[in-house]
């Protein structure tokens, strides 16, 4: 975290310090004050070290670091201020007897000047092995080849090198690759609200993969709440700093607060934010249109019908041929339609030497090979269904690339949507089967205790048959909202298995009250989906699965729960646990309260059989 961006604490004014208005005077009169913010190890809660930050005189216009550096920039003495700030932090760090590492901020310009003066100007006051020099984002580096020797000089002296505020301004992957920092501090933008922002989570996970490859240690900046801390801890980020862990202080604590220690050592695992909305991309990667591409020759628009016949005769596997002008497709000739015409008497003699556009579809369906699944699916719903017989032309930035068939289009859209539904339900946007299994495995690998609760809706099929799928979907979305409302988003994982089946992985201690509240809320709210006459009748008339007239009561919620004690299901796996929860659900459907729990002894007997069944 750069000194300019830091929030000032409440310092005390030095006795006898005369007021001063210039930065150079502040430096000369030693009125710069150091404060220290702890950097905490997530493994055991130990303080690894402190970032030294600078403040001006309390109550003065230069009290905040932002004001200090703004004035220094105007006065042209920013580098002098950086050097003075580092020395002030070192002197205070020594005087306080702080343990661990001291993190100091430097711009590229100030570091280059430090190297030219000699590292002894800094490290004569402190053991270099206790120092981590952070390259701030404030200034760009003109030539990394000239800057690399500066980093080498730091390391030769014994200090470590860090990139500050990674992911913002000048802190780029280019720097990471070429300078190979020992420490990378992730910018606070990516950390704040990471517990609820899937894209930030994925961005940090990408940084984590690169850190593992490069050997750098990651420090997450800007941690301001427990939820973000737990997500970072459970995804494997090693350390962090922020107001939740400790604010900058002139006399920092040697240990973190008990509330912070309790959060770091919490037994429950975090629920990771999921990218659940289907963007139309294939989860397996690659554009679906590219996978449908059939490489086939095209004919120029000046070609004759005899040329088309010769091509179809030579290549009997072709279902169609595209007609192009230059590289741009202008028409499509369907093989079957063309050959049927030529089978008629005298058609070859009459039309063979005429232009091929005579029997072509001059408005073929064009699909750009980068087209998304949703755009392709729109074709399936359009009024123009000629592509089912003719096929279509696949283009690359408008240029002819090849052909595709109607059959392959239907198959591609279906396969991608089925695959996408495994990751996220397209109706409720809740995580699907793959994220559900992944979270169960995370719970088991951490030996976390939890309650797996399988949720089902009684009498949903008769309701769906009577009122239609549209109204049925509204009931499912209502059920999803009710379940989401009773979950603690930081502890309880809610997934949509499919249809009217949901799964909650509760870590909340109040799981039973939450499940009961969901049942009560849903059962009362579901009545509004019925017509007044059906509400008065207490249900609807319909037919059972054998076609017999039957009266069905209102849609209600049933929840079957299984308790997995800490370490009690690790050897059985996610599928066995989900199957056991499904058994509890079937029992709950017969229970008046709608809630059944399979406790430790019975689950211990059933799990081995399910795991091997």
UniProtKB/TrEMBL annotation:
Transmembrane segments: none annotated. Residues 1-10 have a biased composition (Polar residues). It holds the Pfam family GGDEF. GO terms for molecular function: cyclic-guanylate-specific phosphodiesterase activity. InterPro entries: Cyclic-di-GMP_PDE-like (IPR050706), EAL_dom (IPR001633), EAL_sf (IPR035919), GGDEF_dom (IPR000160), Nucleotide_cyclase (IPR029787), Rev_trsase/Diguanyl_cyclase (IPR043128). Residues 448-601 form the GGDEF domain. CDD domains: CBS_pair_GGDEF_EAL (cd04598), EAL (cd01948). Residues 1-20 are annotated as: Disordered. Residues 16-262 form the EAL domain. This is EAL domain-containing protein (Putative c-di-GMP-specific phosphodiesterase class I)/GGDEF domain-containing protein.
